[in-house]
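call fold(seq) -> tokens
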Amino acid sequence: MVEKKHYANGELALYGRILMAEYTNAGHLYQAVLFHDADGHPAYFGPDGKAMKKAFLHSPLQFGAPITSHFSLSRFHPILKIYRPHLGIDYGAPEGSPVQTIGGGRVTWAGMKGGEGNMVQIRHTNGYETMYMHLSRILVRNGQEVAQGQRIGLVGHTGLATGPHLDFRIKQNGTFRNFETLKLPPADPVTRAQMPQFVADRDCWIGLLPPGGTQFAQANPAAPRAVPAGAQSPSPSTAAVDQR
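ret:
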């Protein structure tokens, strides 16, 4: 189920968001419904209200950067020339590469911090915190709310660093964890207060899906479908819906 925007003459202008999707794999039906999380950000949920995505992305960089130093309780520091814990992961990346937050949250530190250099620290839900160190530039401010995948800074080598890289660290309930082996938690489900609206939206979209999941039927652009409130859609006069 996808939005389509049309010009006044009925000609297709562009596709919009996917409002609902389903497919069958090995006899099992999978469905995803567009709704919004507790912070108002658009997200996909299963019919039972459980989040379809993880709470965290798999990397603080938008490309497959190599890991140049792993999580360790005793690593030889290349500048200090002593063995000490390295409670994060170093990603080798060119100076100025964009750094993204792996999850939504609130910035609790954005500035210079000793050997960590320019650092951004973010508090997430369920006791998680993440740190992004040695940045060449910080793009957020202290106290700011950030969304998953938002650009928060640029790779650099400020502080105790021999070259440009990102030192990324994550805490769970105050304890540093190894991000490489950490089982990423799911995002929060639809809240109890939101559930009635979610159920109404879900049932509306399911009712519009064609039987069998293989047919195609285009809604009349001159008579757009009603859009559930929870989908936070644009004005019905600018959007029609296709069922695929």
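The longest strand covers residues 28-36.
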